[in-house]
Amino acid sequence: MMRLDKYLAHAGYGTRSEVKRIISKGLVEVNGVVIKKDDQKIDETNDEIIVAGAVSNYTKHVYLMLHKPAGVISSNYDPMHKTTKDLIHGYDHLQTFPVGRLDLDTEGLLIITNDGLLAHQLLSPRYHVDKTYYVEFSGDYKAIYTSLFETGVTLEDGYLCMPSHIELLSEHTALLTIKEGKYHQVKRMFMVLDMTVTYLKRVSFGPIKLDENLKKGTFRPLTEDEILALKKVVS
């Protein structure tokens, strides 16, 4: 059960004080009954809420795909840089956040949600959710590196990465799939093998692939099938 004023605020009808005024004016009906008490308890799933004559469509959780461009911080606030929240319009009332982070200069797929449990599961080492990156790099790629990626690269601080999978596309491009997300992990994995990442783009997260029609800096809601696939991978 949820307070009516909290429900309306979460549904995007305004701030708490604004929705209190809407309620006090008799503009809200719950199951056909006009309600003027802002602390009225409702069932947000089963009750019919009508505001100013229109049925309210409440969404508790939202799941978005963002094509993050370089130069944008994976955060809701940063005093120096544009953030991913600056790119997401129309969802402020739902308090969304990015699932994990992409470096400032890294592009590609970023999932945005307000589902804290699913976000935690997707990032948890327990579930080993694959994340695939398109990598451009400088330096010489030696044949032995493939087996090193497959068994686990040891970073400069001694941390042994989980086994990953690399697919060379050309002399200096590859697809790398990892199962964790340590700080600057992809760049550091290449660095300890005397190579330098010059461009990095995440192209998939678990079963979700970056929509090729999604331009940099834009987003779209995940489809029902994509949401179900995400939840299934951590079930």
From TrEMBL:
PROSITE patterns the UniProt entry points to: PSI_RSU, S4
Record bears the keyword Transcription regulation: no
Enzyme Commission number(s) of this protein: 5.4.99.-
Keyword terms: Isomerase, RNA-binding
Domain RNA-binding S4: 2-60
InterPro entries, per database record: PsdUridine_s_RsuA/RluB/E/F_cat, PsdUridine_synth_cat_dom_sf, PsdUridine_synth_RsuA/RluA, PsdUridine_synth_RsuA/RluB/E/F, PsdUridine_synth_RsuA/RluB_CS, RsuA_PseudoU_synthase, S4_RNA-bd, S4_RNA-bd_sf
Top-rank EC class of the record's enzyme: isomerase
SMART domains: S4
Gene3D superfamilies per record: Alpha-L RNA-binding motif, Pseudouridine synthase I, catalytic domain, N-terminal subdomain, RNA-binding S4 domain
Similarity comment: family membership: Belongs to the pseudouridine synthase RsuA family.
Protein name as annotated: Pseudouridine synthase
